[in-house]
TrEMBL record:
All copies of domain RNA polymerase sigma-70 region, residue ranges: 27-93
Residue span(s) of domain RNA polymerase sigma factor 70 region 4 type: 121-170
Coiled-coil region(s): none
Name assigned to this protein: RNA polymerase subunit sigma-70
Source organism of this protein record: Chryseobacterium glaciei
Keywords assigned: DNA-binding, Sigma factor, Transcription, Transcription regulation
Database matches in InterPro entries: RNA_pol_sigma-70-like, RNA_pol_sigma-70_dom, RNA_pol_sigma70_r2, RNA_pol_sigma70_r4_t2, RNA_pol_sigma_r2, RNA_pol_sigma_r3/r4-like, WH-like_DNA-bd_sf
Family to which the UniProt record says this protein belongs: Belongs to the sigma-70 factor family. ECF subfamily.
Signal peptide residue numbers: none
Gene Ontology terms: biological process: DNA-templated transcription initiation
Amino acid sequence: MKILFGNKKEDLLSRLKKQDPAAQKVFYEQNVKKFLSVGKSYIIDLYQAEDCIIKAFCKIFKNIEAFRGDGNLEGWARRIVVNECLNFIKSHKTVFYIDDINPSFMVEVLEDEITVDFDAQELLNQLPDAYRMVFNLYVLEGYSHQEISDTLQISLAVSKTQLFRAKEKLRVLYLQQQKTMKNEHAQR
């Protein structure tokens, strides 16, 4: 991507590799909102999510030479953001992974109960950390169960179980949210 720096257009990546503060500012401004959104999908507390994003940007700028141009820069940087969030969670919280599937946890969703009016981030925030991490990595980041297993140092079975449970928990939370919204509408 060519950006105007001073009087001449230069490639943003080459300027970032030269540790140019103006290029770093441009990259930061282009991506901070997206990356904060990613951070908040892993870490509920806004201030902790912001800290992780700042650390991620520092790592991005410090390690920009490691980017070889395979894929796009934003995707490479996003992976650093995700890893920074996962490292924060691992270092600040105890996350328990349960590897057995409890059939009583399954809930059937009836089509007539589904509406399009819901707050997805609120639902994700209510998931236990282990469920949310696996769900986000699989659904939002596109990781395979093997990549999740390697990243979180859990077995494939645990990864699959956590995803299953996250989906079931989200289904329950969604139905509860819809019921609450219907009740609030009825009271008006």
